[in-house]
User: Which sequence fits this backbone?
């Protein structure tokens, strides 16, 4: 089941040391294209809505059809003259995001933002974290250093910050505010640009200690942002969450970071990551062989900041410690459509490697009339034959454990294979997923939509994240070291003399 928060991958690069390089390599198909006629935009907008109604598993899960129709008409009325292609992509994403489904999205606006940076554009270096009622800066925002990590934002250009968040949420595909805010941690400068276009500066009012300060935050180029970070360095990033790693933390306790549940070793053309799993399975098998040989009694699997992927990757990992047969969902329902059938054909023609389980799903789709919702029987995954790991398993999650990473945590928790540590996932454990794509013919915009609905193994279908068995508060934004990992180790050692 292909489930990955692809937009998160692009947005999260804004916070990474290698963002300057990634921005230079990014491209947008319409970055320098001519304006699109109002007629072409209206035509593709109508096709966008029609195709979503036909192919999306349930476009009206969180919005009624009457609400969506009204929203469609209000946005359609704004298309009166030729439009810049980026403005069209932003408008269409705002329409798709209205449905409050994280796996329904258009990535073109974010890619366009990266493109403008590559072309010498600027970024407003305002990075935030929403902690309850407080909105905190996570990096220094201004050249004078008045607004540093930990300062609480009160308003932007005189608008209360909660109103700013509410407005920007309209561009974010997310089931609930907690998930929208989590994505804003990677994307706040992007969303400001989508909403207001390129700006030279913004006025930020923040509470710094016991003092209120209003500071002009100026937009910066990539080189200027790099200099700002060097001038006011934040806590060192000790973990590269996209990497795969196995190690022994201390006697008896091993650590596994599987990384994304898709192929990070193989570059991929098109709108989706590669799901050829051989390199991943080699890494997992080698890691568990070392784990068993080490004699460790506890394994900590780190799923923090994991964008998700496919259970064809995660199932073989779980099979190493599962004590009974399992599958990632208690129910899995698909919707057949012409768009999905066409996307499958595209994948076949492109020669993209297709794993056997997914090929079986493709074959099942071809037998179903368009518009039909049908139950798809997920294969039962057996525990791995001996040798396998019989010690205690712990999963460390945070608000950025998305999509299939959240599903892995739910599976391990529901089957009792281990315990979950950390903070509640922003993404939900029962969800609309299994994304496919279609391309609008006149604008060239690629649209991602979910064709399935699944319910977590315990049968709870509510819109809720994975709640940890052992909660760990998010560390302060200016904390040094890996505070959450240290807390996790404390919990593991404190329960060493009893089963979990």
Assistant:
């Amino acid at each position: 089941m292909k489930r990955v928060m692809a937009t998160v991958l692009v947005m999260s690069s804004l916070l990474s040391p290698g963002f300057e390089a990634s921005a230079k390599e990014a491209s947008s198909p319409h970055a320098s294209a001519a304006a699109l006629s109002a007629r072409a935009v209206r035509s593709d907008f109508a096709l966008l809505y029609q195709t979503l109604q036909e192919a999306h598993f349930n476009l009206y899960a969180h919005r009624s059809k009457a609400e969506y129709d009204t929203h469609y008409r209000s946005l359609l009325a704004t298309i009166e003259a030729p439009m810049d292609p980026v403005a069209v992509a932003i408008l269409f994403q705002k329409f798709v995001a209205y449905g409050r489904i994280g796996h329904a999205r258009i990535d073109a606006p974010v890619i366009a933002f990266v493109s403008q940076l590559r072309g010498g554009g600027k970024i407003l270096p305002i990075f935030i974290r929403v902690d309850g009622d407080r909105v905190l800066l996570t990096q220094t925002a201004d050249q004078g250093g008045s607004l540093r990590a930990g300062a609480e934002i009160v308003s932007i250009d005189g608008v209360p910050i909660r109103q700013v968040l509410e407005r920007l949420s309209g561009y974010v595909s997310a089931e609930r505010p907690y998930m929208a805010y989590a994505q804003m941690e990677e994307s706040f400068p992007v969303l400001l640009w989508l909403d207001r276009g390129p700006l030279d500066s913004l006025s930020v009012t923040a509470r710094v200690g016991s003092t209120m300060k209003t500071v002009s935050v100026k937009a910066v180029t990539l080189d200027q942002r790099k200099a700002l970070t060097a001038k006011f360095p934040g806590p060192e990033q000790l973990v590269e969450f996209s990497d795969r790693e196995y190690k022994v933390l201390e006697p008896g306790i091993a650590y596994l970071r599987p990384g994304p549940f898709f192929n990070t070793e193989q570059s991929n053309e098109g709108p989706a990551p590669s799901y050829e799993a051989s390199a991943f399975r080699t890494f997992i098998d080698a890691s568990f062989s070392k784990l068993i040989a080490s004699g460790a009694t506890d394994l900590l699997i780190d799923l923090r900041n994991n964008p998700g992927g496919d259970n064809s990757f995660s199932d073989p990992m779980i099979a190493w410690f599962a004590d009974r047969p399992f599958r990632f969902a208690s129910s899995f329902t698909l919707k057949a459509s012409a768009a999905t059938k066409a996307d499958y054909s595209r994948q076949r023609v492109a020669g993209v490697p297709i794993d056997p389980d997914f090929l079986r799903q493709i074959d099942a789709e071809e037998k179903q009339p368009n518009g039909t919702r049908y139950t798809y029987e997920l294969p039962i995954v057996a525990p791995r034959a001996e040798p396998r790991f019989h010690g205690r398993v712990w999963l460390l999650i945070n608000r950025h454990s998305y999509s299939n990473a959240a599903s892995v945590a739910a599976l391990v928790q529901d089957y009792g294979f281990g315990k979950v540590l950390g903070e509640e996932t922003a993404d939900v454990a029962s969800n609309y997923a299994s994304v496919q794509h279609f391309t609008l013919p006149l604008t060239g915009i690629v649209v991602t939509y979910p064709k399935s609905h699944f319910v977590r193994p315990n049968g709870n279908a509510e819109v809720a994240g994975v709640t940890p068995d052992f909660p760990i508060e998010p560390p302060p934004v200016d904390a040094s070291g890996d505070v959450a990992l240290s807390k996790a180790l404390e919990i593991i050692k404190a329960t060493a003399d009893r089963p979990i």
About this structure: The radius of gyration is 23 Å. DSSP finds 15 helices and 18 strands in the chain. Residues 2-118 form one domain.
